[in-house]
Amino acid sequence: MAQGLSLVSQRPAAKATRTEPAGDGGVWVFITADICMFGLFFTIFTWDRSHNISLFEQSRRLLDPNIGLLNTIFLLTSSWFMVGAVHAARSGRRRALLAFLSLAMLAGSGFAVSKIIEYSHKLQAGISMLTNSFFMYYFIFTGIHYLHFLIGMVVLGILWSMGRRSNLPSEPRYLLWVESGACYWHMVDLLWLMLFPLLYLLRQ
Amino acid sequence: MLEQFKYWRLCAAAGPVFMGVFIVFWGLMGFNLPPFSGGEPAEVLGHYFRENANWVRLGMVMAMTFAVLYMVWGLAVAKIVERVEGNNNILSTLALWGAGLTVVPVLVSSSGWLAGAYRPEALSDPVLQLLYDWSWLLIDLAYSVTSVQMFAAGVAFLNDKRSKPLIPKWLAWYGIWVGFSFAAECLMPFFKTGPFERAGILNFWIEFMVWFVWVPTLTYYVFQAIKRLELEALASVPTRDLGALAKAAE
Asked: Which residues of B touch A24 (CB under 8 A)?
């Protein structure tokens, strides 16, 4: 597991013929489109920020970077367990696969809870997406990211449920879905790794 | 050309026709490309309806007349979905209903703009603004019916067991992504300026653009799929019937 998740598929059939990305080829279209969309989000945010630096800085100080860091740790830990799940699936170890998927969901739940607590603190303090431009971006970008996260959690749940069925972990089709799910889950991480410094850390 | 596929092709061609009509009449003639910002005062909307009443009337009449073509196109897509999913017709039915229901908000919202252009001289600026706002809220927030079409077709195409799928998987994923991205329209009612308002870069330019790309791209692959299905049908016909088929093909 320490070697990390290779972005190149290790499915035997694929290896024999050509090198191809991990997971279903088409899922990379989804991931690319999503990253482009978030890339546009970040560009708009940066552009708007350059015109309202003092407002954005004042608002940023109202966010707690420790909670942001906690969120990051939850997500990265979850992704780390997902790497373990992929390796377990590739070697056909069903018990390990189910254990890693469960741990990935458990770590993900930590993110779900801490984000809800963070949102509720902001709302209780009278801060919403209509407060100012910074909080509009904060709530919308992290909200859309949260939606991606929830979809990812559902995908992990489905993979866990499928993995319980006998023989599935060694089936190429199932492995394809595990790899695709892992790629998506890493994308959720990657987007957060951009959002965290942009919203919580970027100083004046 | 086999008789049954003639109508499939006809339906598939309805997609680009719909897009053309939608862009020219609803978009350009109806002054909806781009729309007026939510931050514009009522006087601007009032002036727009009064000064351009006939253009808006013509644009919306044509948009309403041809809106049904989206459903016709959706039937061609649903027929391909049907071939992919086999005996289970859930996804093809959902894809068809999604396309059919997409026609409703286009029709109803166009009637809102048309109502504003019908007798604008007798209506006050705030009333005209209300009609304009209401029409935009409807057409944007009815996105979920189109998403249903995209999800159903996308899931079916991803489950295509052929070694070379009828519709490429990347397009299936793209359609699913577009369906999800439409959810950003939910933000539109909360903003009158900025990237998330109705004329904003995200809620107008990006969301409409990704849909405008999806429809013609899928249409191209639907035509390719029809060609393949037709060849498969011809290959499975006994030799003695080929003469009759050849006549039909003429």
From this structure: 158, 169, 173
Say whether residue B202 is in contact with chain A using an 8 A CB cutoff: yes
User: Which among A26, A41, A136 has CB closest to B172?
Assistant: A26
Contacts of A147 in chain B (CB under 8 A): 183
Please name the helix (run of DSSP H) or strand (run of DSSP E) that holds residue B45, with its range, or none: helix B42-51
CB contact under 8 A, B173 and A29: yes
Query: What are the tens digits of pLDDT across the range B206-239?
Result: 999 999 999 999 999 999 999 999 998 888 766 5
First to last CA, chain A: 40
Cβ distance of A34 and B177 shorter than 8 Å: yes
Q: What is the pLDDT along chain B (250 residues), one digit of tens a residue?
A: 677 889 999 999 999 999 999 999 999 988 888 899 999 999 999 999 999 999 999 999 999 999 999 999 999 999 999 999 988 899 999 999 999 999 999 999 999 999 999 999 999 999 999 999 999 999 999 999 999 999 999 999 998 888 899 999 999 999 999 999 999 999 999 999 999 999 999 889 999 999 999 999 999 999 999 999 999 888 876 655 555 555 555 5
- Write out chain B residues lying below 8 Å of A34, CB-based: 177
Interface of A with B (CB under 8 A): 24-30, 33-34, 37, 40-41, 44, 129-130, 133, 136, 140, 144, 147, 151
State whether residue B242 is helix, strand or coil.
helix
Domains of chain A in sequence order: 12-201 (1.20.120.80)
Min Cα–Cα distance to chain A from B177, Å: 6
ipTM entry:
0.77
User: In terms of pTM, does the model score above 0.95?
Assistant: no
Interface membership of B170 toward A (CB under 8 Å): yes
SS3 call for B63: helix
